[in-house]
């Protein structure tokens, strides 16, 4: 990409059943708008203490480079899933700080959710959080364990088409 490109982190969460195929389709569509630079491992997040597979989601974070602005990237996260079967969250966009009813960047739960911060650190560990002035790797090292999650697959498996 050109020097005027922007880099963001996007978190993806979708149903475990059929999730890897849906994730691949999503990433193919994303690449029409920019370039996926890195992707975290894919984790299975359990929603119940019983860890019943049908009540689980797969989650990952990808680093995305595009010429688009922040509003277009936010719109992308909303239009990629017209059926509302997955959640896409814009975690950060360059080193931008935004606090509005429509968008807060960096995403406030990014550093509070142990699984999201670990995935974000895998995708862009050297990103310096503009508020905490620490890299995502540093924040992830001090985060508690993600007790309701486990490794599912390599993120690379989703982008090897």
Proportion of residues in helical segments: 25-40%
Rounded to the nearest angstrom, the distance between the terminal CA atoms is: 21 Å
User: In sequence order, what are the helices and strands, one letter per element?
Assistant: EHEEEHEEEHHEH
Globally, the shape reads globular
Beta content comes to 25-35%
Write the topology of this structure.
Elements: E1 6-15, H1 19-30, E2 35-39, E3 42-46, E4 56-66, H2 70-79, E5 86-93, E6 98-99, E7 104-105, H3 114-124, H4 136-141, E8 149-153, H5 156-159
Antiparallel strand pairs: 1-4, 1-5, 2-4, 3-4, 3-8, 6-7
Task: Describe the structure in brief.
The protein is an alpha+beta fold and about 160 residues long.
List keywords for this structure.
alpha+beta, 161 residues, 5 helices
Provide an overview of this structure.
The protein has helices spanning 19-30, 70-79, 114-124, 136-141, 156-159, and strands at residues 6-15, 35-39, 42-46, 56-66, 86-93, 98-99, 104-105, 149-153. By secondary structure, the chain is an alpha+beta fold. The strands form 2 sheets. Strands 1, 2, 3, 4, 5 and 8 form a 6-stranded antiparallel β-sheet that branches. The radius of gyration is 15 Å and the shape is globular. The two termini are 21 Å apart. The mean pLDDT is 89.
